[in-house]
Amino acid sequence: MGIKKNILVIPGDGIGPEVTTWGKAILEQIAADFGHDFTFDEALMGHAAIEATGNPLPDETLEKAKKSDAILFGAVGHAMYDNDPSLKIRPEQGLLKIRKELGLYANLRPILLFDELLNASSIKPSILKGTDILFFRELTGDVYFGEKVRSEDRNTASDLMIYHRYEVERIAHKAFEAAMQRGKKLCSVDKANVLESSRLWRETVQAIAKEYPEVTTEHMFIDNAAMQLIKDPKRFDVVLTANLFGDILTDEASQIAGSMGMLASASIGDGTGFFEPIHGSAHDITGKDLANPLASILSVALMLEIGFGLKEEAKVIITAVDKALKEGFRTNDIADETTNPYKVLGTKEMGKLLLKYIAQTTYTN
Ligand code: IPM
Ligand code: MG
């Protein structure tokens, strides 16, 4: 039985539109193959929205977002803001506001390692092989949303690192539930040796751990976790952490998968789910047909599985990505000296190849 869903596409800035086009095309292909009825709408966010309306998250975008069943997002950001901290209106504000407004408190970032890409990482294949980590990054608290202050003389500034117990509890439950479905191991990362907010975090996670006796829980300081992640990534199963630590740790973890261009994420919470690649707007390669569309395509797989409960459809996408890699096809970011130069594809060619493979997988199953 086909399902009916209304999907909002927010391409955003930089390579966002280039990669999101392919995420959307894959959704259309899946809908056609499996008899689903997906309807699409589009909205502005980030620099694109500032240019058009003066606001990084226009009201119209927020209204459309609240009404949709899922959101496929590209990236926000523009080079002009990076070296000018004095600019008051910034593209990233749109992303932070939509996370808060939609109550997207849990950001899931799976480190999915394709065997073919073991050599694309700067870490030794023997260390990487078999790694399978699922990050739960808290997304609507921490220094990201605490009070920001700048003194009158402009010489002093602070960002408040703040957590409420309920914020830790709700994401901890989600992470423990996921651990129960996976390897039954959970590592909670904090800085409880220094930070009061981390002591609240640890105490709360310890209490919730008692409700999941089958899960082996450990607590690790962020500095140690950053080191363990590249020393022995296989030791991790589910990693639960706060907003800022999760932001940093997942960029580091992306190198395990070979490239940021491969990592997808799902933000979930009270309502509509939000699905996006973890890479940013990448102005340096914008418009050059060099961006890797696989993170957007894998974000669509997360939308289907986590957002709509369509496991089979998600699997078809992952199988198609696996096939493209097994056949030796690469985008620039995941190519290495062993790659056949004729198999290094641009964004569009990689997108088209995936569409073809998805159609094939569906009809041969
Ligand atoms: C991410 C990004 C964002 C974040 C930026 C663009 C605000 O780095 O989603 O990881 O820090 O959360
Ligand atoms: Mg980040």
UniProtKB/TrEMBL annotation:
Principal place of residence: cytoplasm
Cofactor(s) named in the record: Mn(2+); Mg(2+)
GO molecular function, one term: magnesium ion binding
Site positions per UniProt: Important for catalysis: 144, 191
Keyword NAD among UniProt keywords: yes
EC supergroup of this enzyme: oxidoreductase
EC number(s) on file: 1.1.1.85
Any one cellular-component term (Gene Ontology): cytosol
Binding site for Mg(2+): 223, 247, 251
NCBIfam families: leuB
HAMAP family documented for this protein: LeuB_type1 (MF_01033)
Protein name: 3-isopropylmalate dehydrogenase
UniProt source species: Pedobacter metabolipauper
